[in-house]
Protein backbone atom coordinates (compact mmCIF):
# COMPACT_ATOMS: atom_id res chain seq x y z
CA UNK A 1 0.00 0.00 0.00
CA UNK A 2 1.58 3.26 -1.11
CA UNK A 3 0.79 6.18 1.18
CA UNK A 4 0.36 9.14 -1.18
CA UNK A 5 -0.12 11.57 1.67
CA UNK A 6 3.68 11.52 1.61
CA UNK A 7 5.64 11.02 -1.62
CA UNK A 8 9.12 9.55 -1.97
CA UNK A 9 11.81 11.08 -4.18
CA UNK A 10 14.87 8.85 -4.72
CA UNK A 11 18.20 10.71 -4.56
CA UNK A 12 20.03 9.28 -7.58
CA UNK A 13 23.41 10.59 -6.44
CA UNK A 14 23.11 7.85 -3.77
CA UNK A 15 22.25 5.01 -6.21
CA UNK A 16 24.57 2.01 -6.40
CA UNK A 17 26.29 3.15 -9.61
CA UNK A 18 27.62 -0.34 -10.32
CA UNK A 19 24.01 -1.59 -10.31
CA UNK A 20 22.21 1.55 -11.58
CA UNK A 21 19.88 -0.38 -13.90
CA UNK A 22 18.95 -2.82 -11.14
CA UNK A 23 18.24 0.01 -8.70
CA UNK A 24 16.13 1.94 -11.24
CA UNK A 25 14.00 -1.17 -11.81
CA UNK A 26 13.59 -1.55 -8.03
CA UNK A 27 12.53 2.11 -7.73
CA UNK A 28 9.88 1.56 -10.41
CA UNK A 29 8.76 -1.70 -8.78
CA UNK A 30 8.18 0.25 -5.55
CA UNK A 31 6.25 3.07 -7.30
CA UNK A 32 8.72 5.69 -6.17
CA UNK A 33 7.18 9.06 -7.02
CA UNK A 34 10.21 10.99 -8.29
CA UNK A 35 13.85 10.57 -9.25
CA UNK A 36 15.76 13.28 -7.36
CA UNK A 37 18.58 14.67 -9.50
CA UNK A 38 21.15 16.58 -7.43
CA UNK A 39 22.96 18.97 -9.76
CA UNK A 40 26.02 20.47 -8.07
CA UNK A 41 28.22 23.10 -9.72
CA UNK A 42 31.41 23.02 -7.61
CA UNK A 43 30.82 26.67 -6.78
CA UNK A 44 27.75 26.90 -4.53
CA UNK A 45 28.90 23.58 -3.11
CA UNK A 46 32.55 22.42 -3.45
CA UNK A 47 31.68 19.13 -5.16
CA UNK A 48 30.23 17.84 -8.44
CA UNK A 49 27.53 15.24 -9.01
CA UNK A 50 25.56 14.46 -12.17
CA UNK A 51 25.55 16.49 -15.38
CA UNK A 52 22.90 16.57 -18.11
CA UNK A 53 24.51 13.72 -20.08
CA UNK A 54 24.19 11.25 -17.17
CA UNK A 55 20.71 12.49 -16.22
CA UNK A 56 19.35 12.43 -19.78
CA UNK A 57 20.84 8.94 -20.35
CA UNK A 58 19.21 7.52 -17.22
CA UNK A 59 15.91 9.31 -17.98
CA UNK A 60 15.71 7.43 -21.26
CA UNK A 61 15.28 4.10 -19.42
CA UNK A 62 12.59 5.11 -16.91
CA UNK A 63 9.21 6.82 -16.92
CA UNK A 64 9.48 8.06 -13.34
CA UNK A 65 9.01 11.82 -12.97
CA UNK A 66 12.06 14.02 -12.34
CA UNK A 67 12.70 16.12 -9.24
CA UNK A 68 15.67 18.38 -10.04
CA UNK A 69 17.55 19.88 -7.08
CA UNK A 70 19.81 22.60 -8.47
CA UNK A 71 22.69 23.41 -6.14
CA UNK A 72 23.92 25.80 -8.83
CA UNK A 73 24.81 29.49 -8.76
CA UNK A 74 22.54 31.55 -11.06
CA UNK A 75 20.56 28.38 -11.99
CA UNK A 76 18.67 29.95 -14.94
CA UNK A 77 21.88 29.34 -16.90
CA UNK A 78 21.07 25.62 -17.05
CA UNK A 79 17.26 25.42 -17.25
CA UNK A 80 17.37 24.62 -20.96
CA UNK A 81 19.80 21.71 -20.42
CA UNK A 82 17.32 19.77 -18.33
CA UNK A 83 14.72 18.68 -20.87
CA UNK A 84 12.04 19.66 -18.32
CA UNK A 85 8.63 17.96 -18.66
CA UNK A 86 5.20 18.91 -17.25
CA UNK A 87 4.88 17.22 -13.84
CA UNK A 88 8.61 17.45 -13.14
CA UNK A 89 9.79 19.45 -10.11
CA UNK A 90 12.61 21.97 -10.59
CA UNK A 91 13.97 23.44 -7.36
CA UNK A 92 16.47 26.29 -7.17
CA UNK A 93 18.24 27.55 -4.05
CA UNK A 94 17.19 30.86 -2.51
CA UNK A 95 20.90 31.42 -1.83
CA UNK A 96 21.87 31.04 -5.52
CA UNK A 97 19.68 33.53 -7.39
CA UNK A 98 20.46 37.23 -7.40
CA UNK A 99 16.97 37.69 -8.91
CA UNK A 100 15.04 34.86 -7.29
CA UNK A 101 11.53 36.04 -8.24
CA UNK A 102 12.52 36.42 -11.89
CA UNK A 103 14.05 32.92 -11.95
CA UNK A 104 10.96 31.37 -10.38
CA UNK A 105 8.67 33.08 -12.93
CA UNK A 106 10.96 31.79 -15.71
CA UNK A 107 10.53 28.25 -14.32
CA UNK A 108 6.75 28.73 -14.09
CA UNK A 109 6.69 29.50 -17.84
CA UNK A 110 8.48 26.17 -18.50
CA UNK A 111 5.42 24.29 -17.22
CA UNK A 112 7.07 22.35 -14.38
CA UNK A 113 6.32 22.40 -10.67
CA UNK A 114 8.33 25.31 -9.24
CA UNK A 115 10.44 24.75 -6.13
CA UNK A 116 12.70 26.81 -3.93
CA UNK A 117 15.24 25.28 -1.53
CA UNK A 118 16.80 26.73 1.61
CA UNK A 119 19.95 25.63 3.46
CA UNK A 120 19.86 24.89 7.19
CA UNK A 121 21.06 28.38 8.14
CA UNK A 122 18.71 30.27 5.79
CA UNK A 123 15.67 31.79 7.54
CA UNK A 124 12.14 31.11 6.25
CA UNK A 125 11.63 34.89 6.16
CA UNK A 126 13.76 35.04 2.98
CA UNK A 127 10.84 33.33 1.20
CA UNK A 128 8.21 35.81 2.40
CA UNK A 129 7.84 37.66 -0.93
CA UNK A 130 8.02 34.66 -3.26
CA UNK A 131 6.03 32.09 -1.27
CA UNK A 132 2.96 32.60 -3.48
CA UNK A 133 5.04 31.78 -6.57
CA UNK A 134 6.14 28.25 -5.66
CA UNK A 135 4.58 24.78 -5.50
CA UNK A 136 7.36 23.14 -3.46
CA UNK A 137 9.62 24.39 -0.67
CA UNK A 138 12.61 22.11 -0.15
CA UNK A 139 13.98 22.34 3.38
CA UNK A 140 17.56 21.04 3.52
CA UNK A 141 17.97 19.05 6.73
CA UNK A 142 21.70 18.72 6.05
CA UNK A 143 24.16 21.17 4.51
CA UNK A 144 23.93 20.77 0.73
CA UNK A 145 26.16 18.86 -1.63
CA UNK A 146 27.18 15.62 0.04
CA UNK A 147 25.46 12.36 0.94
CA UNK A 148 25.84 10.63 4.29
CA UNK A 149 25.66 13.75 6.48
CA UNK A 150 23.89 13.96 9.84
CA UNK A 151 20.63 15.82 10.42
CA UNK A 152 20.88 19.49 11.47
CA UNK A 153 18.37 19.04 14.30
CA UNK A 154 17.03 22.61 14.41
CA UNK A 155 15.76 22.26 10.82
CA UNK A 156 12.88 20.18 12.18
CA UNK A 157 11.47 23.22 13.97
CA UNK A 158 11.97 25.20 10.75
CA UNK A 159 9.81 22.66 8.88
CA UNK A 160 7.05 22.97 11.50
CA UNK A 161 7.18 26.78 11.39
CA UNK A 162 6.91 26.60 7.58
CA UNK A 163 3.96 24.19 7.77
CA UNK A 164 2.10 26.61 10.04
CA UNK A 165 2.91 29.56 7.69
CA UNK A 166 1.62 27.64 4.66
CA UNK A 167 -1.58 26.75 6.52
CA UNK A 168 -2.04 30.34 7.76
CA UNK A 169 -1.73 31.63 4.19
CA UNK A 170 -3.97 28.80 2.89
CA UNK A 171 -1.43 28.03 0.16
CA UNK A 172 -1.16 24.75 -1.73
CA UNK A 173 2.56 24.18 -1.22
CA UNK A 174 4.30 20.86 -0.56
CA UNK A 175 7.23 20.68 1.83
CA UNK A 176 10.09 18.51 0.56
CA UNK A 177 12.67 17.32 3.09
CA UNK A 178 16.15 16.47 1.85
CA UNK A 179 19.00 15.00 3.90
CA UNK A 180 19.43 12.14 6.39
CA UNK A 181 15.91 10.80 5.75
CA UNK A 182 16.27 7.63 7.82
CA UNK A 183 13.94 5.34 9.85
CA UNK A 184 14.80 7.23 13.03
CA UNK A 185 13.76 10.66 11.68
CA UNK A 186 10.95 9.88 9.20
CA UNK A 187 8.11 9.93 11.75
CA UNK A 188 9.12 13.35 13.08
CA UNK A 189 9.83 14.76 9.60
CA UNK A 190 6.29 13.77 8.55
CA UNK A 191 4.79 14.89 11.85
CA UNK A 192 6.14 18.44 11.46
CA UNK A 193 4.89 18.68 7.87
CA UNK A 194 6.97 16.82 5.26
CA UNK A 195 4.97 15.97 2.12
CA UNK A 196 7.89 14.67 0.03
CA UNK A 197 10.82 12.75 1.53
CA UNK A 198 14.13 12.49 -0.36
CA UNK A 199 15.42 8.97 0.11
CA UNK A 200 19.22 8.79 -0.01
CA UNK A 201 22.15 6.96 1.52
CA UNK A 202 20.58 7.19 5.01
CA UNK A 203 17.73 4.92 4.14
CA UNK A 204 16.41 4.15 0.67
CA UNK A 205 19.83 3.18 -0.71
CA UNK A 206 21.23 1.55 2.42
CA UNK A 207 22.91 -1.64 1.25
CA UNK A 208 22.11 -3.50 4.49
CA UNK A 209 18.35 -2.96 4.02
CA UNK A 210 17.68 -2.83 0.26
CA UNK A 211 15.16 -0.72 -1.65
CA UNK A 212 12.15 -3.05 -1.42
CA UNK A 213 12.53 -3.62 2.33
CA UNK A 214 13.19 0.05 3.04
CA UNK A 215 10.13 1.27 1.13
CA UNK A 216 8.04 -1.26 3.07
CA UNK A 217 9.52 -0.08 6.38
CA UNK A 218 8.89 3.56 5.41
CA UNK A 219 5.14 2.97 5.22
CA UNK A 220 4.83 2.33 8.96
CA UNK A 221 7.13 5.24 9.81
CA UNK A 222 5.14 7.57 7.54
CA UNK A 223 1.84 6.45 9.08
CA UNK A 224 3.22 7.22 12.54
CA UNK A 225 4.07 10.71 11.37
CA UNK A 226 0.68 11.25 9.76
CA UNK A 227 -1.14 10.20 12.94
CA UNK A 228 0.99 12.63 14.93
CA UNK A 229 0.43 15.56 12.60
CA UNK A 230 -3.32 14.95 12.50
CA UNK A 231 -3.33 15.28 16.30
CA UNK A 232 -1.73 18.71 15.82
CA UNK A 233 -4.41 19.69 13.29
CA UNK A 234 -2.01 19.78 10.31
CA UNK A 235 -3.36 18.75 6.88
C1 LIG B 1 22.61 16.43 -0.51
C2 LIG B 1 21.53 16.01 -1.47
C3 LIG B 1 20.66 14.91 -0.95
C4 LIG B 1 21.43 13.71 -0.46
C5 LIG B 1 20.55 12.90 0.47
O1 LIG B 1 23.06 17.71 -0.88
O2 LIG B 1 20.70 17.11 -1.76
O3 LIG B 1 19.71 14.54 -1.94
O4 LIG B 1 21.86 12.94 -1.53
O5 LIG B 1 21.26 11.79 0.85
P1 LIG B 1 21.50 11.37 2.37
O6 LIG B 1 20.34 10.46 2.71
O7 LIG B 1 22.81 10.66 2.34
O8 LIG B 1 21.52 12.61 3.22
ZN1 LIG C 1 18.96 16.90 -3.01
Question: Could you walk me through the main structural features you see in this protein, from its secondary elements to its overall organization?
Answer:
By secondary structure, the protein is an alpha/beta fold. The protein contains six helices and eight strands. Strands 1-2-3-4-5-6-7-8 form an eight-stranded parallel beta barrel. It is globular. It starts with 6 loop residues before the first strand and ends with a helix. The chain binds D-xylitol-5-phosphate and zinc ion. D-xylitol-5-phosphate is lined by residues 11, 13-14, 36, 38, 69, 142, 144-149, 178-181, 198, 200-202.
Radius of gyration: 16 Å
**How are strands sequenced across the largest beta sheet?**
1-2-3-4-5-6-7-8
Please give the largest β-sheet.
8 strands, parallel, barrel
Mean of all residue-level pLDDT scores = 96
* The level-1 CATH class: Alpha Beta
Number of strands: 8
**Which structural class best describes the helix and strand composition?**
alpha/beta
Residue runs with pLDDT of under 50 for 5 or more positions: none
Query: Level of helix content?
Result: 25-40%
Structural domain tally = 1
Number of helices: 6
What small molecules are bound in this structure? D-xylitol-5-phosphate, zinc ion
Overall 3D geometry? globular
Q: For the record, what is the CATH homologous superfamily label? A: Aldolase class I
Multimerization state? single chain
List SSEs in N-to-C order.
EHEHEEHEEHEHEH
- CATH domain fold name: TIM Barrel
Amino acid sequence: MQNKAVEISASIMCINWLEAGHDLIALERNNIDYLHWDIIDGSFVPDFAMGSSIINTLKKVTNLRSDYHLMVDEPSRIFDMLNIKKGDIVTIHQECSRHLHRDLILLRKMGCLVGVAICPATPLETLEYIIEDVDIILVMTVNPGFKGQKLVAQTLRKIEKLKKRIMDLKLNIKIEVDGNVCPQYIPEMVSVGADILVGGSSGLFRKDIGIDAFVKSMEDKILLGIESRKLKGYS
